[in-house]
Amino acid sequence: MKFIKNTFIILTILSLSLYAGCKGNDPTTETTPLTEQLDLLLNGGSSWVVFSVIKDGYEVTNQFSGFTLFFDNTSYSTTNSIATAWASTGTWAFHNNNPEVIMRDDGTLISVSLANNELVLSFSVTGLPTGGRTEGVDGDYVFTLVSQ
Fold first, then answer.
1. What is the pLDDT of residue 37?
2. Which residues, listed in sequence order, are joined to residue 125 by a DSSP beta bridge?
3. How distant, in Å, are the alpha carbons of 10, 11, 16, 64, 139 from that of 3?
4. Is the pTM here over 0.70, yes or no?
5. Lower CB density within 10 Å: C or N end of the chain?
6. pLDDT tens digits, residue range 46-59?
7. What pLDDT is recorded for position 70?
8. Cα(11)–Cα(101) distance, rounded to whole angstroms?
9. Where are the strands (E) in the chain, listed by range?
10. Of all residues in the chain, what percent carry a pLDDT higher than 90?
11. CATH 2.40.128 is held by the domain 31-147
């Protein structure tokens, strides 16, 4: 009787070990370049904070002091932004399923580079009305952000 009990325990342990070691072929867990990039952009639910902002080759980081950017699956929100460069809220999507380019709801295409907890976003703001403050916002931007 003791032999049967020990054999049953050993077979149960072996069965559980084999079951735990099996990896399913669940297609919902498959990673793609888009899902990997999305995961990086979501930043574990944390915001991205400004490290530097370059506009037309000149550093303008002081104009974006306290700037933060938060992504969720389809929208973004910012704090301390210049609205014509970054609206306070909006939506975004990967452009043509390219994980290195996103498009905001205002039609702006943004080049995305992510490495070592650093997010670099490059884009152009064009076609704003002329005169005053808007002329100073029109241009090519490179935002370098770090994980908060």
1. 95
2. 139
3. 11, 12, 20, 74, 80
4. yes
5. N
6. 999 999 999 999 99
7. 98
8. 53
9. 48-55, 58-59, 68-71, 75-79, 89-94, 101-104, 109-115, 118-125, 139-147
10. 66
11. yes
